[in-house]
Every structure is written in C-alpha cells, then in structure tokens.
Amino acid sequence: MKQRALSFDRFIRLRRRTALVLAVLCLLTGAAGCGKSSPRPEDGAAIASSHDAGNETDAPKDADPGTDATVPADADPGAQPVTLPDSTEETEVFIVGPDVDLTTLSSTMVYSEVYQMMINPEDYLGRLIRMHGTFRVYETPQRNYYACIVTDATACCKQGIEFVLDGDYSYPEDYPEEDSNITVSGIFDIYYEGDKKFCQLINAKME
After folding, report:
1. What is the 3-state secondary structure (H, E, C) of 132-175?
2. How far apart are CA 184 and CA 101, in angstroms?
3. Sequence-distant (≥ 6) Cβ neighbours of residue 2 within 8 angstroms
4. Local confidence band at 47 (pLDDT 50, 70, 90 cut-offs)
5. Is 47 helix (H, G, I), strand (E, B) or coil?
6. Residue 74 has what pLDDT?
7. pTM (2 d.p.)
8. Paired strand residues for 183
9. d(Cα 117, Cα 165) in Å, to the nearest integer?
10. In a 3-state reduction of DSSP, which class is residue 10?
C-alpha cells in the first residue's frame, strides 16, 4: 500500500507538471495569435488618426524647409511651383496716358473734338485730356481764366478750354506769354457760375 501510495503521488505530480507545461504553451500560442489579430474598428480609426496627426506635424527629413512638404494626391505631376515676388523687390509702375490726346489729331479733327466737348461735356467728364494750342488769359475782378485755344484748318474759327494748374502759381510770373504755344493736360470737369455751365481741365500740367 505504501508503494502504491508513492506511485499514485508521483503520478499526481507528473499530471500537475504536464498541466503546467500545457498552460504555458497555451499562453505562448495565445500571445502569438493576438499579434496577428486585426484591431477593432474603433482602434483602427484611432491608429489612423494618430498616424495622420504625426504626418501633419513631422516633415520629411529631406524636405526643403522653404517649400511645403504636403503635396495633394491629385496634383498634376507636370505642374510647376509658383514663386511669389519678394515684397522688398521694386515694383514696375506704368504711367497711364491720356484718355483723349488731341495732340495726335489734325487741326480739323482737334477743332471738331473740342466742339463735341462743348456741346456734350458729360461724355468727357473725368477723362484725362491732352491738347496743344495757344495760351490766353482773361482777367476779371474776381479771378483770372487761363485757356488753351485751338483753331480750325482755315484758322477763322477758334475754341478753347479753360485749365486750372495743379499747384500754387502766380500770374504772370509762372505762366507763358499770351499767344505762345503750349501743351496742357488735365481732368475734364464741369462747373457752374450762376445758371451758366462751363468746362475746364482741373489738376492740369503744362509741358
């Protein structure tokens, strides 16, 4: 009975060792299987979000620090980057010419154009006019009127447009002699004296 008891006790110990070995093997097998299992949908979304967040903050090591490392997936592979001009660089400025340049027209056309300005002044309001003619001054107790006079082809008819120089000028020191040729440009404007309407070139300059 003692020998049997010893054998049975050894058998129990052997069974316990075998069960322990099997438990360890199951744990190792389960750990390997968990490494291959797919994450849950919510875990996958969290992984994608963290991955995207890392892409937004971490730039590639070989990226040019002066350029944007983010390239749209649907970008045209042949497109070239556009370089904006530096704000410190000089900007090219273009000078706009007159809207109506009477100096390029014949005497007949000049006279006709000035006549149109007199009868339809609203059509020229605010336009830059440049003209060539003779200088005249009309002195009155209230103020002086300065004008550029043009004639027709036969020189028998005359018309003129009053001009007001841009700046502080005194007559006769700052003006040419009467009947001398001048070229003047200014903005076409309309003003009233009483119930009468007059035309003039304001902010004018003499060349």
Report:
1. EEEEEEEECCCCEEEEEEEECCCCCCEEEEEEEECCCCCCCCCC
2. 10
3. none
4. very low
5. helix
6. 53
7. 0.54
8. 132
9. 20
10. helix
pLDDT confidence of 173, banded at 50, 70, 90?
A: very high
H or E segment at 189?
strand 181-193
- CATH for 100-206 is 2.40.50
With tokens 């060792």, the residue in question is 17
Extents of the domains making up the chain: 100-206
**pLDDT > 90 in the chain, percent:** 47
Least confident of 39-48, 75-84, 105-114, 126-135: 39-48
CB 163 within 8 A of CB 204: yes
Residue that the structure tokens 């027209």 belong to: 105
Sign of CA dihedral 45, 47, 50, 52: negative
**Pairing between β-strand 144-151 and β-strand 158-165 as defined by DSSP bridges:** antiparallel
Tell me the sheet residues that pair with 188. 201
How far, rounded to the nearest angstrom, does the alpha carbon of residue 56 sit from its chain's CA centroid?
29
Buried b (16+ CB within 10 A) or exposed e, 156-186: eeebbbbbbbeeeeeeeeebeeeeeebebbb
Question: How far is residue 190's CA from residue 118's CA, in Å, rounded to a whole number?
Answer: 10
Structure tokens at 166: 């841009």
Q: Is 123 helix (H, G, I), strand (E, B) or coil?
A: helix
Backbone angles phi and psi of 7, in degrees to 5 = -65, -40
